[in-house]
Amino acid sequence: MAPIKIGYWDIRGLAEPIRMLLKHLNIEFEEKRYGFGNESEASFPNLDEWLAEKFTLGLDFPNLPYLIDGDFKMTESVAILKRLARANGMIATTEPALSYSEMIEAMIIDIRNRLINVVYAENLGTPEEFEQKLVALREPLETSLGQLEAFFQKHGSQWVAGNQLTYVDFMAYEYLDWYRVFAKSTPIFEKLPKVSDYMKRFEELPSLKEYIASDEHRSVGCLSPFARIGHRWVKE
């Protein structure tokens, strides 16, 4: 059987939870990473490489990331994660674990989108104004992380769905990690021992520990060069 194919930009972005889930499951996959052009050219960054293929792949809703599994093709990052999770026992099936995981999934997406909406905004303003916008993210983020801390404290769970690792944990780790890096100069996780332990527990998973520590994961930008920050940084 041919391996699963994943297509996405040459960044972590929305595909990184998918990559980590596949690696955790030890599922063989091939990946097509689309670039943004030549940095030495005035047209950088551009979408030309992806646009040349976008409507030739037989996708119902052409977009990135995409998954091709034999004759089956789909797009949308969360939908891809859920398909893989259902097929491999990585989704909660009992209550209240299912409701908890779906609730935190929505919260994590909201946290992710707050950052994306700032760094990809068309009118980013001066560098000083942009920094003020980043600072303004801190208060709602601390509120959300404080609530997540309280959730882990209240339920005494290892993962968002209790003691079962699910696809939501792969999303939560990746998008919280973005903030952990971007806010390195003013750490926001120091006063959150439960959340910090959660992140460390994920990083120590035998199936992922080597990958998370590798350059393949750590030296690739979270976001595209269209963003004000997040492209071509290296984590310590």
User: What is the architecture of the largest domain at the second tier of CATH?
Assistant: Up-down Bundle
Number of strands: 4
Tell me about the largest β-sheet.
Answer: 4 strands, mixed
Overall spatial form: globular
Ends: how far apart? 39 Å
* Element order: H for helix, E for strand: EHEHEEHHHHHHH
Return the CATH class of the largest domain: Mainly Alpha
Total of domains: 2
Percent strand equals 5-15%
> Which residues sit in consecutive blocks of at least 5 with pLDDT less than 50?
none
Structure classification: alpha+beta
* Percent helix range: 40-55%
Protein model, in words:
By secondary structure, the chain is of the alpha+beta class. The model has no long low-confidence stretch (mean pLDDT 91). It has a four-stranded mixed sheet, with helices on one face. It folds into two domains: 4-87, Glutathione S-transferase Yfyf (Class Pi), Chain A, domain 2; 97-218, Glutathione S-transferase Yfyf (Class Pi), Chain A, domain 2 (Up-down Bundle). The chain is built from nine helices and four strands. 47% of the residues lie in helices and 8% in strands. Helix 4 (97-119) runs antiparallel to helix 5 (127-155) and helix 4 runs parallel beside helix 6. The longest helix is centred in the middle third of the chain and has 29 residues, at 127-155.
The gist of it:
The protein has 236 residues and is an alpha+beta fold. It folds into two domains: 4-87, Glutathione S-transferase Yfyf (Class Pi), Chain A, domain 2 (Up-down Bundle), CATH 1.20.1050; 97-218, Glutathione S-transferase Yfyf (Class Pi), Chain A, domain 2, CATH 1.20.1050.10. 47% of the residues lie in helices and 8% in strands.
